[in-house]
Amino acid sequence: MIGLIQKFPLQAALLISLLLAAAASLALYFNDDWRQTTFAILEVEVDEEGEIVRKVKVERPEPNREQVREIARNKELKKREELKENARKLRKTVLSLEEVVEARKESLSTPDIWDELAAQSSHLMQQADEMRYWQTKSRFLTQQEGVAKSLIQLRNLADTHSKQMRVLALQIEVENDSAWAALEQAREVVVQITPAQASIVSAYESGVALPADREQEKIVRFMTERVEAMKQFAEEAKAYLAEFESFLMPARALPPIPTEDTPAETLTETSVDTLPEVEPELPASESDSAEREAVPSEADLDRMETDELYETIQAMTERLDEAFAENKAAELAEFKQIPLDQAKEQVYAPKTDPGPDLAESLKQNQPNSSEEFQAFNEALNQAVQSSERIARQAENRLSSASGAQSSDDKASQTADQLKQALSKAASLKAKMAMAGSNMGRSNGNLQDLRSLMQQSYANASLSGGDDDTGQAGLSASYDSESFLGADKSQNNPSGIRLDSRKTFAQALPGRRFDQESSRKGWIFVDTWYIIGPWDLPKGPEFEQSFPPETMVDLDASYEGKRHPRTKEAMQLRWRFVQSGSLRIKPPDELSSTVYFAYTEVFCESAMDVVVAVASDDRAKLWINDLVVFQDVGLSGWQLDEGFRRVLLKPGYNSFLLRLENGPAVANFSVLMCPADAVLGQ
Q1: What are the tens digits of pLDDT across the range 480-519?
Q2: Are residues 454 and 562 in the same domain?
Q3: Which of 69, 234, 348, 607 has its CB 3.0 to 4.6 Å from that of 547, i.e. a possible disulfide?
Q4: Looking at the structure, do residues 532 and 617 belong to the same domain, yes or no?
Q5: Is residue 428, in this structure, part of any structural domain at all?
Q6: Where are the residues of the annotated region Disordered (predicted)?
Q7: Average of per-residue pLDDT across 399-418
Q8: How far apart are CA 614 and CA 641, in angstroms?
């Protein structure tokens, strides 16, 4: 009995050991991961805080080839579905963008009489601007009394009329009142030609009367060219006016050009609606490019292997870039009333990064080892990341091209609805460009752009209706055409004056607005990304476009102006600039150059804001892709060059400024202040 009792602990221990071994064996049998795990010794390490810690090092045995391939198959199935989804998004975006392009090109290929008249008015504007340009380049002409004044007035009238005709040409239907107002503007241009031509002829006669020498010969030769140019300009302007009048009025009822005794109101007696339809002669069609291959269908995408999917996404990226550049060219051709081929030469064609070449790596989907699997898995991850980035950029391109966020509702719109939406957006942009121009306006002028901006925001909203910008203080009775004159709500004073010393002392830096903020004074935008310089183009201001006007890509680089010392083209990149002063100076400041500055301003809610733009020499400012300010001529920096009452959206608002510098220094400033604080001064 005593011996049995002494042996019991041993038997109990043996039994327990057997039970534990059996449990471990069963666990290992049913769990593959445990069977592949071995335990190692404790490792001693030092953590980030310098303390010594012990860790158990767990090692897994190398999986066999069948296991590696099974893991690779599962991983590839998951990643292929993600690639398919991104490919479907990209396919849908490319097709939508090409629909936008076709709608714009169709509008260009079937111009009406308003397109033709707008093109002629644009040509007259260029001639008037060229006359003014040569006057500024001639010391002799600059010294002649009355020449500069008459040419500036002629150029301003021609510019105003050209912009108005551009607005009309972009509309699907032109209202009678707008048509007659444009005709009256054309008459004002023709009337102003007489004193301008007389001043040029008088200057020519003064040149002839100078003592004969080599300098006098040069002056006479130069003035002879100007006299001939003005004569041709006058003939073309009168022919244009006659065509305009014959379109709007029956031949037997042409009224005379209004004088002091003939009120202009008599011009509106004839209705445009009573005129017979005019069948314009269509211009020669643009040479069609080679027919593209069809975009793969969704069924095609479903049948593709992983490497084929990735290569298809890259191919569609090239197609996206082509469509985006073609859309920008068509938009420019429509806006400037120029041929599409000419517009293509002026538009920058951005290239989307198609991602790394992974075709061969993605074909290696039967790895034999962990190392091969890791390479294959890395290629899968890179392919998915690149496809996500490309699909996202494509949607941004489509939004930029169509002027609206993409959505399923908008994808179902008809071709006519798309044309109407594009026409409305283009017309609003043209009106904004006309309203934002500072040409012919005195310092301190305030242009109210809120209504046009509200219409543009509503046009681009997902619902197509009003958005929450209405909380910025616009009433239902606000006149959408008030930008042409004084604000009928009496909230638009004739001018604003700023004390430079006081503003310099009190303005604070910032890029954020809040309705509840206690700060109600002026803030200056102090933080920008700036790129340049490019060579300043000859001819009219802001006529030639540069890459940032097509698309702002802060990672892009371009060739710019030749360096004055090395004579090599400067490699341009966006550079971050933060200034503690109101005036921002671009890096690499040079004469006869063009710079661009980009930033974003955040608003907690919709804000009614007054913006002051000043520059040396001239500047053009876009807010949310809408022109709100455009200056002309060479001038020094002045705080009160021009003020714009604008409507900022909730969230981030993009600001893009183009700075053109003549001789000497270049700088600019953008100040903002809540409208109630400015108008309450």
Answers
A1: 333 333 333 444 455 677 777 888 888 889 888 776 766 6
A2: yes
A3: 348
A4: yes
A5: no
A6: 255-305, 348-369, 394-418
A7: 64
A8: 6
